[in-house]
Amino acid sequence: MGAIQELSTLENSAAAPEQHASEELEVKAKKFLRGNGANLEVLKDKKLKGQLAVREELYGQSAKAAAKTEKWLMPTDGGYLEPEGLEKTWRIKQESIVREVDLLSSRKAFDIVLPELGPYKLDYTSNGRYMAVAGRRGHLAIIDMKTMALIKEIQVRETVRDVVFLHNELFFAAAQKKYAYIYNRDGTELHCLKEHGPPLKLQFLKNHFLLASTNKFGQLHYQDITTGEMVANFRTGLGRCNVMQVNPCNAVIGLGHNGGQLTMWKPTSGAPLVRMLCHRGPVTAVAFHTGGHLMATAGMDHKIKLWDLRKFETLRTYHGHANALDFSQRGLLAIGMGSFIQIRRDSSGDQDYSLYMTHRMAKGYQIGKVLFQSYEDVLGIGHSNGISSILVPGSGEPNFDSWVANPFENSRQRREKETHALLDKLPPETIMLDPRQIGTVKSSKKKEKPSEKEIEAEVEAAIEAAKNVKLKNKTKGRNKASKRAKKKLEGVVRAKRPFLEHQMEESKKRQRTSQEEVELPKSLQRFVRKKP
Amino acid sequence: MKQMKMTAKHMRVKADTHRKQLRSKAPTVSKKKKKQANDVSRNRRGPRLPSSLRRQLDLLNPKPENSEEVIDSDEADDERTERNDVYEYDEPIPEEESKKNRRFDSVDNLEYELPEDFEDENVSSSSDNDNDEDERAHKAESVSDISEAEAEEDDEERHSRLLQGITGMPSEAFQGKKRKNGVLSELPPESEYNLPNEASDGPITIQDLLDPLHGKPGYSKLRKKMYQLEKGSLTLQAPLPKIEQEKLERKVAYVKTKKEMTKWEQLVKKNREAPTVFFDEDTDVGYSTVGAIASEFEPRTEFEKKINSLVHDPEVVEAYENDGARLLEFNMVSVEDVKERQNRLAKMRSLLFRHETKAKHIKKIKSKTYHRMLKKERLKAASTQVDMDPEAAKELSMKQEFKRAEERMTLKHKNSSKWAKRILKRGMDKQDEATRAAIAEQLHLNTSLTRKMRSMNDGSGSDGSSDPDDDDDDDEDFSGSDGERTSNIINRAKEKTQQVIEEEDEIPKSGVLSLPFMVRGLKKRNEASRAEAERALEEYDAQLRNLEDESGGESLGASSGKRVFGMAMRSHVKANNATESVKYGQDSESEDLEGEEHIDLLCKKNVALQKDVQVDPGILLEESDGGHDTVFKSFEDIVKNPGPKSEYEVAIFASDSFKKMPSEKPVESETKSLQVAADRPQYCEDFKGEDQNSDTDDDEMMVDGILTSGGKIDYELPSQTELIRQAFAGDDVEGEFEKDKMDVLNKENPEPEKPVLLPGWGQWTDIQQKKGMPAWMLEEHDKAKQKRQDALKKRKDAHLKHVIISEKVDKKTEKLLSKSLPFPYTSKEVFEQSIRMPIGPEFNPVASTRVLNRPAVVKKAGVIIKPIQFEEVDPHDREGETAQSKKHPKAEKVKSLDRGRSVGAKSLKKTKPKKR
């Protein structure tokens, strides 16, 4: 008896973690289900009901499988700096972090001092493997961040304002003094994009293969880099604009303007999708969360604001200047101001970004760009005296999906991916505020009832059409003029009929409603308030 | 049951026959009876048979009249026919009428009544049962039957009277006959022991059999059953009209087919509801393994049998199974032998392996020189063979001759090929080294093959001198460098030509060659050859000189370990001579250039400091074409001649100018400060141009940084207006924005126009003016205003003060939405929920992707889809079924694949057993 009890308790103890695991799995699977299934009870069509039920079950299985895959294939959890006792995470210096981490990681923190070639801008490839560096005074370079080897550097002997990688490390675009240029990895100039004017900022929409630029005249250009076609040229009409950031979720471009406004654009509409007044002073920096519904803006009015892009409302406001903002893959917000860097983190999960880390560059350095390296816990900084990178624990996604971005990809994989990306290239019209709308039913703009005039016109058109019908030649006395006239008249009547019927119906309806209204006894009807 | 049925059937048949016999028997039994039957037929009482049947019955029962009373039978017949004709379906003769008759003759008949009764009773004893039966069968008509019986009696009386009247004979004569008959019918009582005579009475009826059972238990039951059967068989109804019949048939058929069809319902439903129907019947390919094939092997030939017997020798098998060692005993081979053999084999194998690896290795070698050497070796071997064997020598020479002749004929190697022509057309100087070498080699081959040679026959003397190639080859093997080797070759060639020139041809004193014209010819040829040799000598000299020059140059630049071309080399030399002090500041031609200089300078100085950082030699090599032993030199080169105005590569990274920041301070120098000073204005300009938006504060900080430490920079503060503009850029942005928003709103929903009256229209006097606008106009205006307000309220940004969300409809985007709900869906929500999950491979695990995207029908190419067949479980045909299932063992298997998979197609393969 005792043994049996023991057994049962053992079983229980074994079952408990199992249950726990299954619950956990279910929670995870829910994430992959992308919302609840439709309520099938409403459906009357049994066949459809059956089909949808089967479908839902398959979805459930798929989600479960995905959750399992995630559990086993993505075992690494992202970590953060965890303070002990009274320690504050933002007091921890880079040196101490570097001392603690492994050798490979410690190599990722570095400073490259290039004081002569002006403020530096930088960009990472989407897999975080390569970094492009652009010094204002004509210095362009590509560095492999894994081996820390310089792949190529060139001096274009011209002002370079921005640099951006195209779909992979083989090509990059630079915004130079007069035009934008595209170079390949070997530093060979491939294209001179004259239509862009003197560009200030470049952004690449990797799913659409569009290169977007803003220029001194406040114009926004989209160019398809696969065909070379200019997709769109828009005038913002809000003056010079050198704050541009693409929303990674829906590929809408956000522009920050001098008037404190922020506009969002897509290549298929000449008017901005959204115009919002974010700051009282000029907007200095914009960043979008990877989730797509969070935006951070910084303005000259000494404010940094977080916005909910679903409601277009401010979530939080922090005080401080910022010349550069960036969200990391896991949602850390880097704020660069002067020679000082702040990293904020949403520790509580309610979008309250509290201070997480700080870093101070050498005095006098002017930070021009901060950018998190994807799949690494590294923040790249482009400043007036070169480029640096610091370690920010918990910034990068710990598990990479080699189908999405592979930091270790070889040339064959790269080629494969390029081909796939080209095949999967999205047309520019797919850019919209809510891309989930694609494929859904068009919201039927409540077409108001056609006005009387329209109805009349319709009736007339119908009558005209009926009159113009050519009658066949008939035989045996049926071709008489009178008969023909009669026939025509019949046609006209027939044409009118639906309209008249419709009218009758409407009048009936109206009567009915009026009757419903007038249900008071006659003696009281006079007291009914007339509707305006 | 069946048996029961059968017996029942049999009985029914029996009853039928019995009835028929009854009828046929009737005349023999009694005349009265016959009469009765006749009357029955006349009166149309009892079962109404169809006329055809009745006629048949009549045929079966020949008329009793024709045998006895021919005369009156005619009449009777006539009468009957008359009756039949006229009253066939008439009501029977009213009883009153007959009664009337009776009323007349009741007295006459009285005296005969008794015997009649008596007789009747007698008769009934024989055929009582029949009558009974009849009566029972017509229970419903029993009442009428009683009256009928009376009527019959009357009829008979009337009949006898009629006969009396006609024939004049006493009625006894007729009755007597009857009596006779009655006597005949008096038989011993029926019982199971005393069966009635068939000849007289016909076959045994059921009644006969039943009677003795009377009173026994179960009799009533049996009787009832019999009665029922009788009744069923007896009530033959008139057939329904054909249409009705068919209708009924159809109805029955419908029910039947419906039942037949409903059995398919489950099957069809299952197949219909299945998301995927599979038809991947696995085809039998036959044996799949060697073992399976081998297991079916049977020895046929003698040899095979023998082998088989040996292999399956029980002793051997046993030995094999028990212990491998015992097998050796059977082998009858000595251990030494085995060992030796093994050794031998091992040796062979190792040799083979070595040979193989060697061959592989050789095959893999791609080096041209190696193959050349190999070829030479082969040639050498051949030549030694030639030396040893005169036959081989002859052959070789013949071959050589043939080749030469061929070459002279075809000129194959004299730049006549397409490839060579193309290359020549492009120009030799544009080709790369390898092509040039290939062309040269070809030409060389040509010359060597077409060179005039002394007769092949006297090869012995000239071998040493005429085979310079061989010597060369030998030398080449030893010679170290390329240049040396070529010079060697040329030298030797020179020597040889000189030798040739100096050498005096001794003119043969005798023979054909001593003939004067031959001598002349020889001389001429000698002269020509000498001239040629001299030319060649000159050429060699020139080549040698060239070669020396080159090697000299190379030795000069050899310290870099790299080859340097053209301009670079020259500038190199100059750079060495150039003084280091160059005034950078003066050279303000291009800022970019200066920047570069400066960087290079810096780099040079930093080199020493950053030795800890590794340098990728590949990159270094790639970086500078102008030899980069010192960056400084190249820099100076550039200073001296700026070269083309394209991008220049900067060697910052290459020379590792990046460093750990805290380790050291940036290095400065006079030159650098100079340069920076020169640069500064431009830089500031840049800043003004580019960084208008940045804080002035920041700019100052920037000045405080490295740049200020680098040198004194005259940084200009932004102008006052600039500052003001920046400071007040955000002035009243809100107001502006609101205005903008109103503009946008007005554009999308224009404000309704105020109602205006045309002066002079609609007004007679000033009365109208006082009244103001007509009410309808105002109303319309109000309505329009209201509408606008509503529209504005509906906007997404209605409650967002600082946001304008465009409501414009993008036509291009519209294309991506569906205009209406796709067919089976009726609600938008359900549809949108159903497409919420992506089904592509990027979003789902592999297995579920496959399931999610499976087509409605999965079928292998070439598989024939058989129609669905239903399997009916029939207990009687179990054997047949099992046989079939044996035939298709796979058909029985039902694979349990994924859920939702229909196995209908599979399980339906079992064919329906045919009923026989």
UniProtKB/TrEMBL annotation, chain A:
Bias (Basic and acidic residues) ranges: 488-508
Main subcellular localisation: nucleus
WD repeat intervals: 276-317
GO biological process entries: maturation of SSU-rRNA from tricistronic rRNA transcript (SSU-rRNA, 5.8S rRNA, LSU-rRNA)
PANTHER family, per the entry: WD REPEAT-CONTAINING PROTEIN 46, WD-REPEAT PROTEIN BING4
Name of this protein: BING4 C-terminal domain-containing protein
Domain BING4 C-terminal span(s) in chain numbering: 355-435
PROSITE patterns noted in UniProt: WD_REPEATS_1 (PS00678), WD_REPEATS_2 (PS50082), WD_REPEATS_REGION (PS50294)
GO CC annotation terms, alphabetical: 90S preribosome; small-subunit processome
Record's keyword terms, sorted: Nucleus, Repeat, rRNA processing, WD repeat
Subcellular location: Nucleus, Nucleolus
Biased composition (Basic residues): 470-487
InterPro entries found in the cross-reference section: BING4_C_dom, WD40/YVTN_repeat-like_dom_sf, WD40_repeat_CS, WD40_repeat_dom_sf, WD40_rpt, WDR46/Utp7
Residue span of region Disordered: 470-532
TrEMBL record, chain B:
Gene Ontology process terms (BP): rRNA processing
Acidic residues bias (residue ranges): 67-79, 108-122, 147-156, 466-479
Cross-referenced Pfam families: Utp14
Keyword terms, alphabetized: Coiled coil, Nucleus, Phosphoprotein
Skewed-composition ranges (Basic residues): 907-916
Chain coiled-coil ranges: 519-550
Record-linked InterPro entries: SSU_processome_Utp14
Subcellular location: Nucleus, Nucleolus
Protein name in the entry: U3 small nucleolar RNA-associated protein 14
